[in-house]
Predict the structure.
Amino acid sequence: MTTAGKPDLVEELAKEIRDAIAGAARPEAGLRATAPASSDLDDVRLPIRRAEDHLTPTIPPAVRFARVKTLALRMLRFLWRNQASFNALALEAANGVVAALERNREAMEEQARRYREVARWREATEQEFRRRDAAQDARISYLETLPKRLPTASAPPSAEVPSLPESIYALFEERFRGSPTEVAEKQRFYLRYVRGLPGPVFDAGCGRGEFLRLLAEEGIAARGVESSTLAAEAGRAEGLDVSRGDAIEALAAAPTSSLGGVVAFQVVEHWPASSTFRFLAEARRAIAPGGVVIVETVNTDSLAAMNAFYLDPTHVRPVPPQALEFLCDAAGFRDLTVEFLSPLPAGMRLHELSENDARLNAVLFGPQDYAVIGRVPVP
């Protein structure tokens, strides 16, 4: 009985050793189905990692006769020594292939990202060119409507003739003021002041209609007046309520307390002081109690901003913040505040290491614009 059991034990040990050796060479069944794939290369990585764990066959310590089986496995190791070396080299080569594939995938993703950036830039550029082409067509159409003969030098100048032809000034704004998108992004700051007003908003000198479009997006009723025929026609073509004319006269024609707000962006620097005060007085009359006035102009306290002021040949005179605030107060507006806007990028200002550096920045490279904001008092 004992003698007969020994061969059975030897045969059982040999069978388990062969099974351990065979199991070391193949991955776990169902591994690919159960392991979550985090990338396209995981189908390659997981079998390799599994094979690395079994380069040298081992006997789990929890199985029967673990010590005996481990001793027998060590005695028979010479049988698969060369195979183990081959497996190690094969795994090293496979890891190299996976690493190369990973680098290639990252390079392709980077190329795809750059392509998307180029595509977005191209689309934005094409839209800008289409907008400029439309503006040029409008200018050409306007020029074609002008008399074929220019007035002679001896003809007396007319007060209605602008300092620059409309088509030329439109080109000037296109080049130096910025795109409509850039201007609208700056004017978005004022939306907080025009929500919930007791009436529509009147945009004096609405230009290309940037603020009117923002108001339309907010569902705020508004209309604008613009002296440029080209700009007024372009605004109406986009569905905006824009009329061509003089902003002060149009405001004077508005019924008393019929408006919720009056805004004028980069306008008062084109007027003498008397016109600015008349505009503010008419705005005070036309705005209902609780309404708001917003007047934005060039910041005279900044030398860099004054350079931009004199760049525009149609500017009449700079208006300091204290002067504009005084005129608003004299016209009857209350709760006056002054907001300084459009700061220069950090790279264009001095690096501040002291209080004097901060003072120099404020004088030389301060914000480019400011706005006076006032309210019509509620009785």
In short: Residues 1-6, 24-38, 149-162 have pLDDT under 50 and may be disordered.
